[in-house]
Amino acid sequence: QVQLVESGGGLVQAGDSLRLSCAASGRTFSSYTMGWFRQAPGKERELVAAITSGGSTNYADSVKGRFTISRDNAKNTVYLQMNGLKPEDTFVYYCAASRTAGLVCSDYGCYSAPGRYSYWGQGTQVTVSS
Description:
Elements: E1 4-7, E2 10-13, E3 18-24, E4 33-39, E5 46-51, E6 57-59, E7 67-72, E8 77-82, E9 91-98, H1 101-104, H2 108-111, E10 119-120, E11 124-129
Parallel strand pairs: 2-11
Antiparallel strand pairs: 1-3, 3-8, 4-5, 4-9, 5-6, 7-8, 9-10, 9-11
């Protein structure tokens, strides 16, 4: 069982930066593929970025060059550094953990399936004003 707790969301202006953190419980954090998803009301969850246990990363095209996912296994934490924020980045952001994605996936489409992730955080709101 893995519990995930996100933090770092907030209200910022366009062009600003935020860093989201996701703290995980459990001793096997390093073996999980971790993902950051985002979701608007009534919409499907969209994968923003994923990082495997080995450190390989995948990003949505809309955030490439602006967002960076990283992990610190010693701290059981995954981060999402968001630079150059835009109003269209306004979403609830969720952290998720998958035991299998890193074993079977090789492209964004595969990593982006929410059903591959067994554990989810409660979400943190990011609002970007223009």
